[in-house]
Amino acid sequence: MKLVAIVGTNSDRSTNRKLVQFMANHFQEHASIEVLEIKDIPAFNEPEDKQAPAEMETLSEKILEADGVIISTPEYNHTIPAPLKSVLEWISYTSRALINKPTMVVGASLGTLGSSRAQAHLRQILDAPELKARVMPGNEFLLGHSEQAFDASGQLVFPEKLAELEEDFTEFLTFVDMTNQLVAAHGLNTEKKRQFSWEAAAE
């Protein structure tokens, strides 16, 4: 299975990057996970030609080619970071690459709550008509105290969180299979949904 994992921040010292890098290494026998950065993608600015910057087009292509997506978000002021919101704006305005794409939301934070409010907000955003990702329900991996969660080699050292992550990831692999089979079997108008516009909806 081919997955991509988006580091949902432009911070160079993010523990969310450590989290998805750990997942890519730890689960490599079960799936190929490519870690994608967003820190070099320009802030969203509505282009007249609806063309995204080259960096954004590359990220969209990798999402389109993947069987599923993992998004790891920190929590800034009770929500997701501005760079992640900007990337989602680019996707919704141009490629709409997340439509019907199986998606797992995870998050790490230095505090106790482990980005719970940001994850809830991200799920709401991903349900927008121009994004419409198929987010795995009933699952919330929250890594609190993340500064202490990884050793010098990048290994997750909290045994209970490792067990939880392994269970969640196993469920996600099943969710990816089932979702992609459902979309393929029933056609679910992925391309039609990518043509959605508020202007047409208002007519």
Automatic annotation (TrEMBL):
Residues 1-147 form the NADPH-dependent FMN reductase-like domain. It comes from the Bacteria. Pfam families: FMN_red. InterPro entries: Flavoprotein-like_sf, FMN_Rdtase-like_dom, NAD(P)H-dep_reductase. This is NAD(P)H-dependent FMN reductase. It comes from Streptococcus moroccensis.
